[in-house]
Amino acid sequence: MSLEKQPYSELIDKIGTLLQNGRQQAVQSVNTILVQTYWYVGQHIVEFEQKGNEKAEYGSQLFERLSKDLVQAHGKGFSRSNLLYMRKLYLSFPISETLSHLLTWSHYFEILKADSELEISFYTKQCQHERWSVRELKRQMKSSLFERLALSKDKEGVLRLAKEGHIVENAEDLIKDPFVLDFLNIPEPYQYLENDLEEKIISNLQQFIMEMGKGFAFIGRQYRMSIGGKHFYLDLLFYHRILKCFVLVDLKRGEIDHQDIGQMNLYLNYFKKEEATEGDNEPIGIVLGAHKNHILVEYATDSITNKVLLSKYQLYLPDKKTLQNQLDKLLEE
């Protein structure tokens, strides 16, 4: 093939793509080998402890002395905390084949900070499903994602969540209670309007979609609907590529009331008849408010056939200890 038929720039692009893919594979291979190596380090430490050598030779100073000697012999990477987490890596994943090649040591280092085996299992699976960066993993753990999702399930559901991660199969799987919007940086006492909340979300759309979860594609804001000669405006409109349906989001600054539910029901009926096309499933409506009255919600949604989901949002990180206590009670029942 002559250079006229295959432009030189195309040759450069092909070589560039090849090199980029090769480098990515090399980095991934290095990360995989590093995690496996640290797992074996953890195994050796545990076996050393189990033989009673720790007490006999070093007592409680094992990790301090081991860190000092390994750093001197092999350089950085063997701090006391790193060694403790290598030990925990082995204990948490006793079969090395269960380690994910998609996760780096930095991922595992954060995951192993979790307090329970259920959390460790959940965040490992979720990192694989969502392809989280280490930064996003830190944010989700800090926002107590596992507890927020688990508290909406029964005991069996919690155990399945920990084992499989959060898999979206139906409308109810879209809900977290509460949604945490700390990234909007709105002070809690601040008297904001619903328009202010919407503006902040649009300015932080990527983080909002990450909080909403996998599968959301943003379509627009203040989406206009003409119904019976009147115009109505939906705050946020998404399409969910997994559930294959429109997802309508309405924001409320205060408590969700029955009028908000009725309005969302109206919007959903409109979308079913006017917006949905062949292949679309029925739309889902989510009303996000700062508060919700559970009894009012129960009566207001009782006879509605459309999928109207209600959830709270909060502008600050939740109290993990409180959520954990609630989860412990659920698991004990």
Helix/strand layout:
Layout: H1 8-50, H2 53-58, H3 62-74, H4 80-92, H5 105-111, H6 117-130, H7 134-142, H8 145-150, H9 155-164, E1 179-180, H10 194-203, H11 205-212, E2 216-227, E3 230-240, E4 245-256, H12 258-275, E5 284-292, H13 294-301, E6 307-314, H14 320-332
Parallel strand pairs: 1-6, 4-5, 5-6
Antiparallel strand pairs: 2-3, 3-4
Domain YhcG PDDEXK nuclease: 173-327
GO molecular function: endonuclease activity; nucleic acid binding
InterPro entries: PD-DEXK-like_domain, tRNA_endonuc-like_dom_sf, YhcG_C, YhcG_N
Task: Write the H/E string, N to C.
Answer: HHHHHHHHHEHHEEEHEHEH
CATH class of the largest domain: Alpha Beta
User: Which strands sit side by side, in order, in the main sheet?
Assistant: 1-6-5-4-3-2
Number of strands: 6
Q: Low-confidence segments, ≥5 residues, pLDDT <50?
A: none
